[in-house]
Specification:
It is a single chain. The chain has 346 residues and is of the alpha/beta class. Helix content is 32%, strand content 16%. The strands form three sheets. The protein has a seven-stranded parallel beta sheet with strand order 1-2-3-4-5-6-9, sandwiched between helices. Strand 3, helix 4 and strand 4 form a beta-alpha-beta unit. Helix 3 runs parallel beside helix 4, helix 7 runs parallel beside helix 9 and helix 9 crosses helix 10. The structure holds iron/sulfur cluster. The site of iron/sulfur cluster (SF4) has 12 residues, from loops. Keywords: 4Fe-4S, Iron, Iron-sulfur, Metal-binding, S-adenosyl-L-methionine. Its cofactor is [4Fe-4S] cluster.
Length: 346
């Protein structure tokens, strides 16, 4: 496996191995909602989720983006995204990323039309669809099968926001589905031969390092294609922000985050593609941790530390122990102290 000089198998490395060049992601807002927000399961959303449903980076919403007729014309958002990338891109192709809210939650005809709009663009290599495992019914799976037939040269990826395998944390963050729902969806997606990328949050309230690593080891056995390792951000207008301001949840220091991250990477199967190692909260609504807004610094420090300690993805995958790793530090910043009683409902 060629990691192209990095100590882990990044998405960039995968793109170069597969397409011979970098692919650029264009985040999209398809005007959908989420069952965890529209009252079907809950109306408050996950406790960390911003009002934009994690779609603040959608091409039509970025400063400097040319106005599009409403946020939902996928073709126009793609055009706007390409324009913004014009100066920095070296490759010729893109990934259309359906990011905001739950992108399989809507009438199937509408979903078919938005996915097709993206897949029909000649310079779109494939689409990545962020959704929930409880929103992948039979009709949606049929739609994927027909799209795969119609666009055999393009990929369709599904991104699932699992965040943790631990039911008590899932309840606390109001994820709204049990782990069994995730494993059933994984089975269906495997059968349909659709690669899955799983989102995991580092630093969830009440989770120890061992709990986090249990999530990573579980995912190693699920046959996932990729993973996004993301820091827990405290964003404005979320229930998590209320708890944070009341001193009821702490956030990770950069040292602690990098320590967790290195262990996750060392424990991860060497074949799993790491699509993200930071996750940048939108600066205008980011409350904490403030160090995370300097993404370049976080990435440089991670690479430097991994190099110095000779840590590499999969190093502890077989052994299951971290005896070979030289990592210390596990510090929180802020005064917050988490207790499971600090639920947002109390
Ligand atoms: S499932 Fe996703 S979009 Fe829905 S509330 Fe949770 S984080 Fe937000």
């Amino acid at each position: 496996m060629d990691y192209h000089g990095k100590p882990y198998y990044s998405l960039d490395a995968w793109c170069k191995n597969t397409y011979g060049e970098k692919l650029y992601k264009i985040a999209l807002d398809a005007g959908l909602t989420c069952p965890n927000r529209d009252g079907t399961l809950d109306s408050r959303g996950c406790i960390f989720c911003s009002a934009g449903g994690s779609g603040e980076f959608a091409a039509g919403r970025l400063p400097g983006a040319e106005p599009v007729d409403g946020p939902f014309s996928i073709r126009k958002q793609l055009e706007a995204g390409k324009k913004l990338l014009e100066k920095k891109k070296t490759g010729r192709r893109y990934i259309a990323y359906f990011q905001a809210y739950t992108n399989t939650y809507g009438p199937v005809d509408y979903l078919a039309s938005i996915y097709r709009q993206a897949l029909m663009e000649p310079d779109i290599a494939g689409i990545s669809i962020a959704t929930r495992p409880d929103c992948l019914g039979t009709e949606i799976m049929r739609l994927f099968a027909s799209l795969k037939q119609y666009f055999p040269d393009k990929f369709i990826w599904i991104e699932l926001g699992l965040q943790t395998i631990h039911e008590e944390t899932a309840l606390f963050i109001r994820r709204g589905y049990p782990l069994s729902c995730f494993t059933e969806a994984m089975e269906a997606l495997h059968k349909a031969d659709i690669p899955v990328i799983v989102h995991v949050i580092l630093g969830l309230p009440g989770e120890t390092e061992e709990m986090l690593l249990q999530t990573i080891r579980f995912l190693n056995r699920c046959g996932i294609f990729g993973i996004k390792l993301q820091l827990l951000h405290i964003l404005e207008n979320t229930d998590l922000a209320v708890l944070y301001r009341a001193g009821k949840v702490p956030v990770l220091s950069m040292d602690a985050y990098l320590s967790y991250l290195q262990k996750c990477i060392a424990a991860l199967s060497p074949d799993i593609v790491i699509h993200r190692v930071t996750g940048d909260g939108p600066k205008n609504i980011l409350i904490a941790p403030s160090w995370s807004s300097n993404k370049r610094n976080v990435l440089n420090t991670l690479h430097q530390r991994m190099k110095l300690s000779s840590i590499r993805q999969g190093q502890c995958y077989e052994s299951g122990t971290f005896d070979s790793l030289q990592i210390d530090c596990a510090l929180y910043v802020g005064q917050g102290h988490f207790s499971p009683d600090h639920s947002p409902d109390q």
